[in-house]
Amino acid sequence: MLKIRKMMQRQQGFTLIELIVVLAILGVLAALIVPKFTNTTSKAKEVAVETTVKTLQSAVELYYLDNDSYPKSISDLEEEYIDENPNSSENIEKFGGKFDINSEGKVTFTKTEESSGQSE
């Protein structure tokens, strides 16, 4: 009988304070990690835009070599020079803006109002 009582007294668990401390530590870790994921997403979008601008610029140069003039719009590059129009509504939402070609054949990217600003 004494052994049972001693075993019952040895049972230990976590106190409320220990649980609160653990939750606080987890909260701090989450607060540090979540912004890094958000930043990674926006950085990935920037890299995708830069890559698309370079791809379109190459397509514009090929178009110029074939036609002795620059395309008037991105849609002039479709089918023969690019597989998909980056200015489709789905892609505008994905990239957060629209791609254009100026009269000198330079490809630019303009962010939508939600993103604001312009980048190249």
TrEMBL record:
It is found in: Membrane. The chain crosses the membrane at residues 12-34. The keyword Cell inner membrane does not apply. Its main location: membrane. Gene3D superfamilies: Glycoprotein, Type 4 Pilin (3.30.700.10). Pfam families: N_methyl, T2SSG. GO terms for cellular component: membrane; type II protein secretion system complex. Keywords: Membrane, Methylation, Transmembrane, Transmembrane helix. This is Prepilin-type N-terminal cleavage/methylation domain-containing protein. It comes from Irregularibacter muris.
